[in-house]
Amino acid sequence: MRRRPTNKNNRGPVPHWLLMVISAVVVLGFVGILVGQAHQGQPTKSADKGPSAPTTKAISRRQDQLENQLQRYFKTVTADGTTGVSFYSLGAKPHSAAAKDATAAQLYRTGHLTAEANAHTPIDSASTYKLFVAGYLFSLHHQGQYPWTAANREGLTRMIVYSENDFAEDFMDTNGLAGLNQFAHQQHAFTPMFIEGETARTTTASLTLILRHLAQQKKPFNHAADQQWLLGLMHKQVYRHGIPAGAQAAKAGTKVADKVGFLGDTNNDAGIVTLPDGEQYILVVTTHGAQPGGETGFKHIAQITQHVQGMVYNPRIIQNLNNP
């Protein structure tokens, strides 16, 4: 028998199963290229990055909602004309937990949340006028016109911490009222605040303004030592049934530097509030006459404070912004 010539390089036909495998690999590779091109330039999601930051529009919309809520509430609590209210966001203290939260820093930044009602109606200031006396004395001192003797320092301390009257009244009796009224005018506050033989008058807006200057270390509190001295005295003032009580009820550990005023049926409180996470705000509430439910003025102030703080600084607000 004649043998057919052999070719060592010829291994015979390729098996059918192998052709199927090769075809599948080619197809999958081609599909992979198309998918890669479709996703080219698109951001990739990573579980490590967490939720994206809210947009500026989302922050602005939430600020508008909060201000509208505050205005509706303030309209309700001031409807009978016996109460005035003013709120002003101060942002967070530097280096605090709140300052490190990008969403909170945008939402509560200084002056971007404000609300007021009956804020420009003149009322008896009671002892809240002493904030203006303190500011005026700091201003005179830095003009070389008022010495901080031991007696004067003690007088200012008693005026703020215990709301005693003799120091302020002695100063006004000696120096007259014109300088104080001019100072109040320079602060863009209600004037005339002081009229001979009459009770001092002011507005919640005026008290808010001088507290803004104090909190932001602006004139007349533009010297750090003056600012810290007065804030320290206000933190220690002994009448704590108004804003301090309400702020504590809203969040334990909240601190308040405030100045109260009470005279007859007038109860006023003007304070700078600092939450445990470092967020700060100004709240001024002035009351006179009978309060809802027969409550005292200061209890009414505490209830307003608790409601406002709980409304504006609810942790769920930040959570919802970060996880829409």
Automatic annotation (TrEMBL):
Start and end residues of each Beta-lactamase class A catalytic domain: 156-287
Domain of life, source organism: Bacteria
Record keywords, A-Z: Hydrolase, Membrane, Transmembrane, Transmembrane helix
GO MF, one example: hydrolase activity
Gene3D superfamilies per record: DD-peptidase/beta-lactamase superfamily
Positions of transmembrane segments: 16-36
Pfam families linked to this entry: Beta-lactamase2 (PF13354)
PANTHER family associated with the record: BETA-LACTAMASE, BETA-LACTAMASE-TYPE TRANSPEPTIDASE FOLD CONTAINING PROTEIN
Protein name per UniProt: Serine hydrolase
